[in-house]
Amino acid sequence: MARFDVYDDNIDLDNLFNVDFDELAEEALKEAVPVLERSMKAAVQAAVEHSGDSELVRSIKANKPKKSRNGAWIVNVTPKGYSKVKVYHGKKGGRTYPVSNALKAIWKEYGVAGRQPAHPFLAKATNDAQNEVLDIIQRKFDEKAGGG
């Protein structure tokens, strides 16, 4: 749900600053993961209206930082698994489907027409984590480039 990317777009940081960009990006993102998880959980918790949604908060986890094919370093912070409480009843055929925590998060963020108002939390989570994450990246850069 929340995503922070660190990428190298035709900048040779390895030679320009005498740093290993991949090492820097991976270490910075690993250190930023707890900040991102904490911020996302706090923002979702603020949007929770009833106890059934508390499992949504607990389901939020970050993946390990990874390098994508285009060179970007990515870490995703997102709800995992399925709700133990909610079941979605399809309109056709009466089938029921388990509701993923990611779907519950989408319903929180955007609302459900005629049933639930939107309670946006993604921008808040991102904005609340931004300065601390940027500080981590700057500190890691200073360590690697010899400026700190």
Question: What would you say about this model in short?
Answer:
Helix content is 47%, strand content 20%. With 148 residues, the protein is an alpha+beta fold.
Write up this protein:
With 148 residues, this protein is α+β, with helices and mostly antiparallel strands. The protein contains 5 helices and 6 strands; from the N terminus they run E-H-H-H-E-E-E-E-E-H-H. The chain has helices spanning 13-16, 21-47, 54-58, 101-110, 122-145; strands at 2-6, 60-62, 66-67, 73-79, 82-89, 96-100. A hairpin with a 6-residue loop joins strand 5 and strand 6 (96-100). The radius of gyration is 19 Å and the shape is elongated.
Main attributes?
alpha+beta; 148 residues; 47% helix; elongated; 5 helices; 4-stranded antiparallel sheet; two-stranded antiparallel ribbon
In total, the number of strands is 6
From the structure provided, what is the oligomeric state, counting identical versus distinct chains? single chain
Mean pLDDT: 84
Cα separation of the termini: 33 Å
Low-pLDDT stretches: none
Radius of gyration: 19 Å
| Helix content range | 40-55%
Strand percentage lies at: 15-25%
Main sheet specs: 4 strands, antiparallel
The helix tally amounts to: 5
| Global shape | elongated
Please outline the helices and strands.
Elements (H helix, E strand, L loop, with lengths): L1 E5 L6 H4 L4 H27 L6 H5 L1 E3 L3 E2 L5 E7 L2 E8 L6 E5 H10 L11 H24 L3
Antiparallel strand pairs: 1-4, 2-4, 3-4, 5-6
Helix pairs in contact: 2-5
